[in-house]
Design a protein that fits this description.
about 280 residues; alpha+beta; six-stranded mixed barrel; 7 helices
Length: about 280
């Protein structure tokens, strides 16, 4: 059997990237595309190296586990979510393998068992299509696995430049707003919070109804601000945009960067809280 190294590398790298991507989306982890690409490439290189003459020893379970761990650390780093992400990556990979096996059985083409693995008589295009289907199904069906119940109010200190504003935020499992570029959860705060964080901007509530124009004005006034427009959907709003600013958020003594979007309307009718955070 002839194995083409470039096809083997490209196919494995693409599938690895999709499995890493779906793991991050399901778990709500930040998407670092360059790191994912590097980890996927590592998996592709391993796939090629393991079939080279004299390198079949690389197909043993210990080497597979080592490369798997290196890929996950390279993609996600070492953090509390790494174990969950590792399990999701395995689950997505097993789901993909199961879908391919089921297709082969239905087609009646059979599976060729080889030393250290199995050969599925499926074209590269079909494998990539099945990997994409696995990605979509996993994301759509299991996208809420990482969420927790909400209902409690927490205090978060937001810092932008020299200004720090404490806000009461409701943990709301229904708030699934994320940055479409990084998959990072977005904290939704009232426009009054923006006025406190940027007192020199003299912000008015009507300006938040046109976030694009407001963004242009703020960038002219403060070019160093890290801002973007975040799309959202809500009851009564099929599609809209919110102005979001990169801040530092401190909770229970821990500080981390956070993307804060500002709502032109109050987030609490009774005024019990000023922001919404995900579950």
């Amino acid at each position: 059997m002839t194995v083409y190294a470039d096809v083997l590398f490209s196919l494995n790298a693409c599938i690895n990237y999709l499995m890493l991507l779906v793991s991050a989306r399901v778990c709500g982890a930040r998407i670092r595309r360059k790191r994912f690409a590097a980890a996927a490439a590592l998996g592709g290189l391993y796939a090629v190296a393991s079939v080279l003459p004299g390198c079949f020893w690389m197909q043993n379970s210990w080497m597979k586990a080592l490369v798997w761990a290196m890929m996950l650390i390279l993609a996600f780093g070492v953090c509390k979510k790494t174990i969950r992400l590792a399990l999701l990556f395995l689950a997505a990979s097993f789901a993909f393998g199961g879908i391919v096996f089921a297709l082969v059985e239905l087609a009646g083409t059979g599976v060729m068992v080889l030393p250290g693995g199995a050969y599925y008589p499926v074209s590269a295009g079909a494998l990539l299509t099945l990997a994409g289907v696995t990605y979509l199904l996993s994301w759509l069906v299991f996208s809420r696995l990482g969420e927790h119940s909400g209902g409690q109010i927490v205090t978060i200190a937001l810092t932008l430049g020299a200004h720090t504003v404490p806000v009461r935020a409701l943990r709301d499992s229904g708030n699934t707003l994320k940055d479409p570029l990084t998959n990072e959860p977005v904290l939704v705060a009232s426009w009054q919070t923006a006025r406190q964080l940027l007192p020199e901007a003299n912000l008015q509530p009507t300006e938040f109804l046109d976030p694009a124009a407001l963004m242009q004005r703020l960038l002219k006034q403060s070019p160093g601000l890290r801002m973007r427009l975040v799309p959202y959907r809500a009851v009564g709003t099929q599609a809209g945009l919110l102005l979001a600013v990169r801040c530092m958020a401190e909770q229970t003594g821990k500080q981390r960067p956070a993307l804060v979007a500002f709502s032109p309307t109050p987030v609490s009718d009774a005024g019990n809280y000023e922001a919404l955070t995900g579950g």
